[in-house]
Amino acid sequence: MKVLLTGGSGFVAQHCLRLLLKHGHDVVTTVRSAEKGQQLLSANPGLPTTKLSYVIVKDIAEPNAFDKAIISSPPFAAVLHTASPFHYTATDFENDMLKPAVNGTLNILNAIKAHAPEIKKVVVTSSFAAIINMQSPPEVYDESMWNPISWEQAQTNGAMAYVGSKKFAEKAAWDFMAVEKPGFALATVDPVLVFGPIMEGSLTSLNAVNTSNVVFRDMIQARMKDGITNGSFSWVDVRDVAAMHVAALEKSEADGQRFIAAAGRYSNSEIASIIKKHFPSLQDKLPEHIELESSKAGYGIDNSSAEKLLGVKFRDLAHAVVDTVDSLLKVEA
């Protein structure tokens, strides 16, 4: 089918793009600049424009941002919306983060309803931030839960604004479905922290590595030789997140569903010990003795619907770490 992929140069989107092409779909991706579009074409060489092309959408939060991008011949059958607004330094959290996130999501949904009646499926990338409850976490999280943060609380600081922007953008999508009753089905994917291998050719320097892979870069560049920073997190491999998006697009069982993308927990010390074990050449970049920190959390996450409805099995930590480090070592080889 023909798919519009928004935010195509993002970390998750690059893996979604690769998988969509592998599954035989034709893809048009939105990017913020021609330079980013050309980078995507270069990373996926030898394809005719009927298989892969790009269209520029500078700011997804601008009114009618997607009205031109959504019109295509032949028409799109589905949309994978991974794009989120981009703000390096937000100071006005409501106007720089919350409203743009909501507007970006509503812009794509309104554009589809108004201009692209042939589209039957939309998958939106959300975040576990839309589900998590920092004040009183449940024993086990599932897809029925929502972060209780209010619009006012989300304006307290940058971290709260980020979490709030994810909740309110996804909530806006489900409210749109309930009120507008459009001719397409919606599914959302809500990942925890996403790391994994970078696409070959997507980076020229490790200085520009995506945030969730920074810990790997710091370890292989000896920035943690004097000690591993504490930290334990829920995680998921980017390739599994991409697989969930594409399966949600292709399977009618996903219609109307939210999916938590989570493989398990890790601590930074676990990552360091896996690197030490599998990459002898990097041993001198890491502390001689690594004390394993527990990665247990006070809550569980029910991720069973990813396997039951989407058929996605999550990779284990060792595979994800080894593949990630392999991909980063190639950048400055």
Q: Can you list the strand order of the major beta sheet?
A: 3-2-1-4-5-7-10
User: N-to-C SSE series?
Assistant: EHEHEEHEEHEEHEHEEHEHH
CATH class of the largest domain: Alpha Beta
Helix/strand/pairing category? alpha/beta
CATH topology of the largest domain: Rossmann fold
- Helix coverage percent of residues? 25-40%
Strand content is 15-25%
Any idea what the radius of gyration is? Answer: 20 Å
Task: Quickly list its features.
333 residues; alpha/beta; Rossmann fold; 2 domains; seven-stranded parallel β-sheet; three-stranded mixed β-sheet; 9 helices; 36% helix; 16% strand; oxidoreductase activity, acting on the CH-OH group of donors, NAD or NADP as acceptor; Dihydroflavonol-4-reductase; NAD(P)_dehydrat-like; Epimerase_deHydtase; oxidoreductase
Describe this structure in words.
There is one protein chain. With 333 residues, the protein is α/β, with parallel strands linked by helices. 36% of the residues lie in helices and 16% in strands. The strands form three sheets. It has a seven-stranded parallel sheet, sandwiched between helices. The chain has a three-stranded mixed sheet with strand order 8-9-11. A two-stranded parallel sheet has the order 6-12. The longest helix has 23 residues, at 93-115. The mean pLDDT is 95.
